[in-house]
Design brief:
The protein is mostly helical and 216 residues long. It is 78% helix and 0% strand. It is built from 10 helices and no strands. Helix 4 packs parallel to helix 7, helix 5 crosses helix 8 and helix 5 runs antiparallel to helix 9. The protein is elongated. It starts with a helix and ends with a helix. The model has no long low-confidence stretch (mean pLDDT 89).
Length: 216
């Protein structure tokens, strides 16, 4: 009995994977809001009724793609941030990690770039929530640096969000480079490193009193 259930679970997992892959493939040329359920199931070779064993609707499949797409980028960037503590080495490694990730998973980055402001509300919300969780984790990692000693929770969160925004936009820029749009990858990497070094330099001299002075 257990072997039979195991085979059934494996088949279910394969079908779910096939649906996700079909969705990503279709999203290369169109937005999620323009894709129909039948179009996805036709690509996989299953009936529309079978789709509902895995997802509630196309938007639910899109949310699963958000979790997968940003989850994989999240893991890559977390590794990049954790690998080095010295600013120069960390920045160089981080940019290299993002570039390599985009080369391996261009379909994930394309999906997030297109749907971040797309027409499916559930997917936009999921992307926002994933980026928020991402910023929380980056904030915790940066808070461990010696340079962050004495920073307020608000300032640390602002720093984490700044890093996440920059890294996501860098991933989008690397994707554009791979598609032959915008500057080449070498230029994207050079600019990204300079921008991160600028953020790092500002971080070294930032104090809460500086911010208070600019608001008077």
């Amino acid at each position: 009995m257990s072997a039979t259930l195991s085979q059934r679970d494996q088949q279910k997992a394969r079908t779910r994977r096939a649906l996700l892959d079909a969705g990503l493939a279709l999203l290369e040329e169109q937005s999620l809001s323009s894709i129909g359920l039948r179009e996805i199931t036709r690509a996989v070779g299953i009936s529309p009724a079978a789709f509902y064993r895995h997802f509630r609707d196309v938007a639910d499949l899109g949310v699963a793609l958000v979790e997968e797409s940003l989850g994989s980028l999240h893991e890559a960037i977390r590794a990049g941030l954790s690998a080095h503590s010295e600013d120069g080495a960390r920045i160089d490694h981080l940019v290299d990690v993002i570039a390599a990730h985009v080369r391996r998973h261009p379909e994930h980055i394309r999906f997030v770039a297109r749907e971040r402001h797309g027409g499916v509300a559930a997917v936009r919300t999921a992307i926002g929530a994933e980026l928020d969780r991402f910023a929380e984790e980056v904030t915790r990692l940066l808070a461990e640096d010696e340079i962050s000693r004495g920073w307020s929770a608000e300032d640390l969160r602002m720093l984490g969000e700044t890093y996440v925004d920059h890294m996501v936009m860098t991933a989008f820029a690397f994707l554009d480079a791979a598609l032959g749009e915008g500057p080449p990858a070498a230029t994207v990497a050079r600019i990204a490193r300079r921008q991160l070094r600028l953020i790092s330099l500002g971080r070294r001299y930032w104090t809460a009193s500086d911010e208070a002075a600019t608001t008077k």
